[in-house]
């Protein structure tokens, strides 16, 4: 059994579409979606290229998760915590 991690650009409504397209693949055991970091972990016996192809067919932008994505996610989450515009806090 293998775990494949993907970076998928999505909003809340895309999660249902993502789970639906992955459930059609043979060999998928579990799908974990983290909406904040846009990370999807797929566990099963399916080949990682077939998983990526299925997600892209569903109309979502996706790529394999890398260490660079992890660093960008940490930087983005820390830099937007104190975002202010004309003395109004947005987050």
From TrEMBL:
Highest taxon, organism lineage: Eukaryota
Protein's cellular compartments: Membrane
GO molecular function, one term: metal ion binding
Annotated GO CC locations: membrane
Domain HMA, residue spans: 1-63
SUPFAM superfamilies to which the protein is assigned, alphabetical: HMA, heavy metal-associated domain
A Gene Ontology BP annotation from the UniProt entry: plant-type hypersensitive response
Broad class of the protein's primary localization: membrane
Signal sequence coordinates: none
PROSITE patterns: HMA_2
InterPro entries in alphabetical order: HMA_dom, HMA_dom_sf
UniProt membrane topology term: Peripheral membrane protein
Pfam families linked to this entry: HMA
Full protein name: Heavy metal-associated isoprenylated plant protein 44
């Amino acid at each position: 059994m293998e775990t494949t991690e993907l970076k998928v650009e999505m909003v809340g409504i895309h999660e249902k579409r993502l789970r639906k397209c992955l459930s059609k693949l043979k060999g998928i055991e579990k799908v974990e979606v983290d909406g904040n970091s846009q990370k999807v972990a797929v566990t099963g016996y399916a080949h990682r290229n077939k998983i990526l192809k299925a997600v892209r067919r569903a109309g979502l932008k996706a790529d394999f998760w890398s260490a660079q994505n992890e660093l960008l996610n940490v930087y983005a989450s820390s830099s937007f915590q104190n975002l202010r515009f004309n003395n109004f806090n947005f987050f």
